[in-house]
Amino acid sequence: TPAPSRNVDLVDSEDHSNYDQLIYSQIEKNAKFQIGMKLEAIDVYNVFNSITAATVRRLFRNGQMEIVYDGSPSDGIIVDDRSDYIFPVAYCQSQNIQMSKPDNFAKKTAFNWSDYFKQTNSEGASFVYFKK
């Protein structure tokens, strides 16, 4: 039988409580995105692939990150920081694209980032982070 991969050996030989530490230790020191930062993203779980608010949940090596769709019970997705599936805050507004209001937006009015930042005590990813 073939030998197990090194990654499996590493995970199996380590205490699983340290697994997150192994992953997070790989974060680049100069990562432009931060955990908790908001952005706009294509919801790949939505039949219409609408764009909605999302949050950076985890950062990985080489510009990889996990994002979650705000207010959605779906799992997060892993994207590259140059992905065509993510956009800066207010991208939809600047392009006259209808953005889906996140399920956890408290107001019954139209979605706007200013109110959402106050509600979630968060900040958004800048346009400069998205230069491809």
UniProtKB/TrEMBL annotation:
Protein name: Uncharacterized protein
Source domain of life: Eukaryota
Organism, scientific name: Romanomermis culicivorax (Nematode worm)
GO biological process: regulation of DNA-templated transcription
Signal sequence coordinates: none
One annotated Gene Ontology cellular component of this protein: nucleus
Family annotation (SUPFAM superfamilies): Tudor/PWWP/MBT
InterPro entries, alphabetized: Mbt
